[in-house]
């Protein structure tokens, strides 16, 4: 096996606190036209996200359509009448503004980058998402120019766990897959998918919900050092 040459990170819920930002943003947004969020409605918002973003990731609907479906699904859950497309788009913009206002990176992201730099390894980001949003996140959380290359599903034309996404990553780095360590929070997309494409992988299991038998698992990016050898 070739020596490790690069560590590539997922973005959402790995370096960037998507779930925290989305939870806060959803609460602010919902309160403007319905009322304070309940745990059930917050969970439903994330279920809508996973369902419809997954459809976009699989190429079955557009990014705009998945956003409309998420907003429309929430309106249905709270008993609001359906809206036309401009109305759905306007509500999405309101949600996105609330979501974006709370963007922040995880406290351990800085430690991870320092560990990788100290080991003399290259970095990168491979993320399932549209170019504009993902680059905006990276800029807001202060990582522009510090981690690269940044590769998105939109730019590559394939999304994790499709092998094409990982092949595009390897081509961009000019490295053998086995020389790359991929770190991410989604076990199926970031660990199983990466390994199937020949990369090494570590599961960032912040909440302790991953497979119990996974040996290459860390609870925090502070624990990444042991995997950089």
Structure description:
The protein is an alpha/beta fold. The chain folds into two domains: 6-17 and 104-227, Rossmann fold (3-Layer(aba) Sandwich), CATH 3.40.50; 18-101, DNA polymerase, domain 1 (Orthogonal Bundle). The protein is 48% helix and 11% strand. A six-stranded parallel beta sheet has the order 3-2-1-4-5-6, sandwiched between helices. β4 (180-184), α9 (187-196) and β5 form a beta-alpha-beta unit. α1 (18-31) packs across α4, α2 (39-57) runs antiparallel to α3 (63-77) and α3 crosses α4. It starts with 5 loop residues before the first strand and ends in an 11-residue tail after the last strand.
Task: Please write out the topology.
Blueprint lengths: L5 E4 L8 H14 L7 H19 L5 H15 L7 H17 L7 H10 L3 E6 L3 H10 L9 E3 H4 L6 H11 L6 E5 L2 H10 L3 E5 L12 E2 L11
Parallel strand pairs: 1-2, 1-4, 2-3, 4-5, 5-6
Helix pairs in contact: 1-4, 2-3, 3-4
Count of beta strands: 6
CATH classification, class level of the largest domain: Alpha Beta
Helix/strand/pairing class, anyone?
A: alpha/beta
Q: According to CATH, what is the topology of the largest domain?
A: Rossmann fold
Number of domains: 2
């Amino acid at each position: 096996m070739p020596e490790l040459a690069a560590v590539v990170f997922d973005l959402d819920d790995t370096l960037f606190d998507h779930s925290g930002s989305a939870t806060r943003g959803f609460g602010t947004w919902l309160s403007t036209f319905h009322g304070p969020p309940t745990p059930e409605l917050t969970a439903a918002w994330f279920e809508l996200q996973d369902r419809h973003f997954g459809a976009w990731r699989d190429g079955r609907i557009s990014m705009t359509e998945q956003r409309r479906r998420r907003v429309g699904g929430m309106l249905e859950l709270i008993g609001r009448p359906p809206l036309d497309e401009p109305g759905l788009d306007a509500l999405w913009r309101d949600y996105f503004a609330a979501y974006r206002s709370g963007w922040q990176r995880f406290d351990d992201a800085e430690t991870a980058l320092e560990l990788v730099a100290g080991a003399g390894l290259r970095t990168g980001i491979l993320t399932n998402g549209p170019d504009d949003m993902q680059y905006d996140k990276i800029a807001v959380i202060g990582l522009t120019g510090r981690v690269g290359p940044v590769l998105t599903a939109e730019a590559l034309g394939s999304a994790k766990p499709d092998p094409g996404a990982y092949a595009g990553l390897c081509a961009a780095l000019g490295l053998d897959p086995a020389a790359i360590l991929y770190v991410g929070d989604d076990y199926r997309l970031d660990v199983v998918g990466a390994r199937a494409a020949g990369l090494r992988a570590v599961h960032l299991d912040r909440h302790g919900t991953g497979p119990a038998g996974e040996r290459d698992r860390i609870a925090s990016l502070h624990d990444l050092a042991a995997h950089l050898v």
